[in-house]
Design goal:
single chain, 158 residues, mainly alpha, 0% strand
Amino acid sequence: MSSTSFHPAPISGLTAQLKDLRDLLGRFPASLLDLLLRSGIALVFWKSGMAKLANWDLTVALFADEYQVPLLAPDVAALLATAAEITCPILLVIGLGARFASAALLGMTFVIQTFVYPENWSEHLLWAAILITVLTRGAGLLSVDHMIGRWLFGRAPQ
């Protein structure tokens, strides 16, 4: 049996350009990506919270008639959801208690998926993926959490 060794072909013009592009994209700052992910998901929930505040009577009616969250009275569920949709996005954007905020919104996403709009699983999966990223990885370098970690520990918390 003869052994043949593999020798990669020399990089051609197009292949070299694709490699350069891949390398360039790999240098995109992760801290900026963290900020964009946090801001993007924050806007989803912020808009929903603002819509709830715009017409409180309609919001409570939606929780009574359409959303029907179990175990909570419609007015209580509306208040809790609106409070989370107003405060957590602010925390996410500035990166203060971002893991806590993402956990709260992840819980809301679970309730929405399970009890309110189970047919919207593809949208909720995207929300959950972003929120799980923040929950497990933290807010990143462009955040108050990072600054507090550096101040308290001389480095960012793990």
